[in-house]
Amino acid sequence: MSSSGTSPADIGSFWLASCDDDLTPRPPLAGDETVDVAILGGGFTGLWTAYFLSQHDPTLSIAIVEREYCGFGASGRNGGWCSPRFPINPSALTRRFGKETARAMLQAQQTMVDEVGRICEREGIDAHFNPVGVLTLARSAEQLSSLHRGFDAYVRLGMEEGCELLDADRARAAVHATDVHGALRLRAGATIHPGRLVRGLARAVERRGVRIYEGTEVLRTAGHSDPALVTASGTIRARRAVLLAGEAYLTGQASHRRRLIPMASTIMLTAPLTPEQWDRVGWSGGECLSSYAHTTNYLTRTADGRILFGSRGAPYRYGSDMCEAALRENANFGWIRDRLLEWWPTLEGVDFTHRWAGYLGIPRDWLPSVHFDADRRIGHSYGYTGHGVITSAICARALAGLVAGRQAGAHAPYVREQAPNWEVEPLRWAGIRYVQNAFLRMDKAEIAGRRPPLDARAATYLGEP
Ligand SMILES: Cc1cc2nc3c(=O)[nH]c(=O)nc-3n(C[C@H](O)[C@H](O)[C@H](O)COP(=O)(O)OP(=O)(O)OC[C@H]3O[C@@H](n4cnc5c(N)ncnc54)[C@H](O)[C@@H]3O)c2cc1C
Q1: In a domain, 26, yes or no
Q2: Domain limits for position 178
Q3: pTM of the complete model
Q4: Per-residue pLDDT reduced to its tens digit, 217-241
Q5: Percent of the chain with pLDDT over 90
């Protein structure tokens, strides 16, 4: 049981249930102490930062303070995609940062996928890393245009070698879903068991001497002459750096309240399919699978032969409220079950064994922020907009580099002080709910073979930078 009273069983994540690790929280902080680097948050960001810091300088003393247990947040609940895609799509990346930077950022993403695989091997983390690539289906005429625009963006960047355009026949041969008009294959990308990765990383950093305190909430952070994480059971002072790695949960801190919003994402998981069911589904490549639907979807074939189907989450809650109970009561479970059966009607009657949801962090401009203020000795990394499995590792390595005194590389626009502010409430709530609702109406229209509602199209400009 965690300090908030939310047990892993309450969360319902298959990944936590099957991570083969004891989720009883490690002992909490008891008393004051001083370390070189103190990190808030035991998800991928905090753990990767500790990993890269200790790799750079094994003599550093590092402590991680986690309110619940490592993997409690999005890191133990996600879709299991090691995505080679950046949160911002390739054409928007090019528009915003130029060709060279866009290409460098996408290549860094692809390289990090392989690096994560190598680290798992080196550290003995059996995270089911499977380098299967990414397959995005076009399931309507509108989606086919999006597919071609997506492919063209890679071509303009000179990255066509890593992509393949599949016509309708080849796409249908790859996945026997309904309404398949074509597909885009990215050769880079992998599926992973995120629960095993996050828990394995925690063990790996502990072996390197990092101390992890669980069940310990950071109540306040301090900077300037006396950087520290302040908790009810003691204060950790940091000689070199205090680092905030709480992603969506950072919205609970005054300093980050408007820097990102917590957005829910929701997952349904089937029981293992029989070989006959898999024959009907196709998808023998087991790629990270999705379509160009506005409400987003991400599908993963697990190592034990289940289908994970993830999609839109619960509606945004006023004031960035993050309610665990609201995640569990989320009405979108039904929407997702219906989508899965719409993709594969022959799976009618399939058992769903798990359902869960979690909060990810979205900055106003969809660009993550990595920053270390050497005077105040405070830093942070956040804002991966649903692509955090790989992007968090890239950002954590950049953050560890900044703490070690290294300059950021030329192609790292995410190394910046903060993301721009989201609007104040109630504007924020009204705008986000409009976009969420419009995306849903556009998808419903496409599914029904109707033209998308005209007024809803404006949401594309607001919601997909
Ligand atoms: C349902 C879902 C599906 C997703 N699918 C994918 C996917 O397939 N691929 C992908 O790349 N990304 C995906 N993501 C996004 C990805 O999981 C996240 O971006 C990433 O895990 C963020 O890692 P993190 O360590 O920054 O944050 P988190 O994993 O959320 O960890 C933050 C930690 O900080 C702790 N914390 C917060 N406040 C405090 C405090 N005051 N004191 C102490 N501790 C505190 C929290 O308890 C938490 O454990 C998904 C996210 C969700 C929710």
Answers
A1: no
A2: 131-189+261-362
A3: 0.97
A4: 999 998 778 899 999 999 999 999 9
A5: 85
274 and 355 housed in the same domain: yes
Residues 446 and 322 in one domain: no
Q: What are phi and psi of 367, to 5 degrees?
A: -100, 125
pLDDT digits (tens, 9 = 90+) for 185-199: 999 999 999 999 999
| 446 and 142 Cβ atoms separated by less than 8 Å | yes
- pLDDT computed for residue 461 by the predictor: 67
Nearest to 185 by CA among 139, 233, 226, 150: 150
State whether 319 and 440 are in the same domain: no
173 shares its domain with 274: yes
How far, in Å, from the CA of 384 to the mean position of ligand 1? Answer: 9
Residue 52 located in a structural domain: no
177: domain CATH number is 3.30.9.10
Provide the number of structural domains found in the chain.
2
53 vs 58: CA distance, rounded Å: 8
Please tell me whether residues 335 and 435 are part of one structural domain.
no
43 alpha carbon to ligand 1 midpoint, in Å? Answer: 6
Rg (CA), the chain: 21
Q: Are 50 and 397 in contact (CB under 8 A)?
A: no
Ligand 1 site residues, Cβ closer than 6 angstroms = 40-46, 65-68, 72-75, 77-81, 83, 217-218, 245-249, 265, 267, 298, 310, 357-360, 384, 386-390, 392
